[in-house]
């Protein structure tokens, strides 16, 4: 706790301080995700492998009259918990569109062009290599970038990463997420029940109406959001899309400015409005002085980074490793899409955007550095596995996961190696570039 904090110190504060500091480091979630990935791989290939994989197939559900849902634990992780992840993705996209790089057309042109190239080229490489073989429906698997692992790799490189490259990569990943969402919605949704989809649409319209009427309760929005998720799940359109839409609907401006809170605190100092009612009013004013978007992003980042994504890795990264799987055409197509398609597409389409004067390279970023960053963007892990679970089943899914893991690992090693060699070491005493 800061010395200026009026709250009293408690023994638990000293115990929790290292944990809190670790969780506040942006790259920490990437390291936790990597640990859980390796743990899942290790358990799946150990004598406990059968029990570990069977655990995630355990059916779990509920019944309430004629309503009910019963799915495997893995299904609940992928459809329910990941809806929260996609809600956060929707929040991040909204923030970029309203407050970030994507609000300026000229500055947004390069990351959008890079993201388009980084989606189209991997899919083409995949289709070229797979031909009409089994697994061709998995064309969307190598199109995605895993932000958590990319941030972790930049953290390892430390001060070598210029701020301009960091912003470019993160904005590219956000634009990439938008493309992945469209791929899931269009390419990997089942036959659609229009009645349930219309019910979900009514729920979305209700959220917009409540916001217009000034409803401020997170509890009310949560209940409506759960109903929308249910409708999307039953409609055949993947339920995580509901999370994205709700994230995009979240207001990016605060209801009150902070001067209102300051005025009321002044009244409290003078003895006015004290008591329980005054405390409740301070709490409400403090909450309303931050935008719902910023509040929810702050509240959810730790849960997504340190709970949801690690559990997703444990539930989905466990695959039995077989040397022969690495030479399977499907694994090769997925791995090549990530390892080769990503950097080729990112550099080629970015070059076209610069030549057409739609944008320009950021300061400190050369074409060779952009190529190294393109390899980092080939780390597809979370989104790639998620799309693979929608596109493929059984042995084909396991084979695709091998390709994802191998391609992502090689892309990370090559990207970090190239950037380490190409980017100069910072001078002693230079300011830290946070990654």
Give the % helix.
55-70%
What form results from the Cα inertia axes? Answer: globular
Strand content: under 5%
- How much is the average pLDDT? 84
Count the DSSP helices. 17
Q: What's the CATH class label of the domain at 26-60 and 68-88 and 102-187 and 302-422?
A: Mainly Alpha
Q: Would you give an account of this structure?
A:
The relative contact order is 0.17. The two termini are 24 Å apart. The protein is globular, with a radius of gyration of 23 Å. Helix 14 packs antiparallel against helix 15 (367-376). The chain has 435 residues and is mainly alpha-helical. The protein has helices at residues 11-24, 28-44, 49-56, 73-98, 105-130, 147-157, 163-187, 194-213, 218-235, 240-249, 258-269, 276-288, 292-316, 329-355, 367-376, 381-391, 394-422; strands spanning 59-64, 67-72. It is built from 17 helices and 2 strands. Among the domains are: 26-60 and 68-88 and 102-187 and 302-422, Na+/H+ antiporter like fold; 258-288, no CATH class. Strands 1-2 form a two-stranded antiparallel ribbon.
